Amino acid sequence: MPERARKRRRKTRAAETEEADAPAEVGRELKAELDTMLDEIDEVLETNAEEFVKNYVQKGGE
């Protein structure tokens, strides 16, 4: 019986490894998407920085 228990543990460890890799892959994909979005924001700010800042400057009484 101990041999059967050992075999089950090995299968469980392999399944755990696969499950642990899945969130890592999702994390990499999210990071890539966020990097792309931040690059787009940087481009907009490079071309329209003055206009962007003017929209956020407080005016009297705000």
Question: How would you sum up this structure, described in words?
Answer:
There is one protein chain. The protein is mainly alpha-helical and 62 residues long. The chain has one domain. 89% of the residues lie in helices and 0% in strands. The protein contains 1 helix and no strands. The longest helix has 55 residues. The chain is elongated and about 75 Å long. The mean pLDDT is 77.
Core attributes:
about 60 residues; mainly alpha; 1 helix; elongated
Q: Helical segment tally?
A: 1
Compute the number of strand runs. Answer: 0
- Please tell me the total number of domains: 1
Task: Name the structural class.
Answer: mainly alpha
Estimated radius of gyration: 25 Å
Strand content bin: under 5%
What is the N-to-C succession of helices and strands?
H
Span of the ends, CA to CA:
76 Å
Shape, per Cα inertia axes: elongated
In this structure, how is the largest beta sheet organized?
A: none
Low-confidence stretches: none
| Nearest-integer average pLDDT | 77
**Portion in helices:** over 70%
Topology (SSEs and partners):
Blueprint: H1 2-56
Structure at a glance:
This protein has 62 residues and is an all-alpha fold. It is built from 1 helix and no strands.
